[in-house]
Amino acid sequence: MNILIVHGDMSAGGGAEAFAAAIRDQLRDTGATVDLLDIRGLSTQDGRRRFDLRLLPGHLPMLRQLHLFKYALVCRYARRIAKPYDKIIYSYGEGPELPNLAATLYHAPAIFSTDRRAIDVLGYADRPAMLRVLKSLYIRMCRRIAGYRGSSGVGRGLVLTNSKWSAGMIRSLTGRRTDAVIYPRLRPIPNKPARRDRFGIVALGRLVRNKNLGFAIRLCNALRQEGLPVHLTIIGRANTIYGRWLVWRYRHHPAIRFVPDASREEIAEILCRARTGLHCYRHEHFGIAVGEMITAGVVPLVFDGGGVRELVRPSALRFRDFADAKARLCHIITATEAEIAALRARLLASPALHQAVNFEAQIAAELLPRLEVA
Question: Fewer CB within 10 Å, N- or C-terminus of the chain?
Answer without folding.
Answer: N
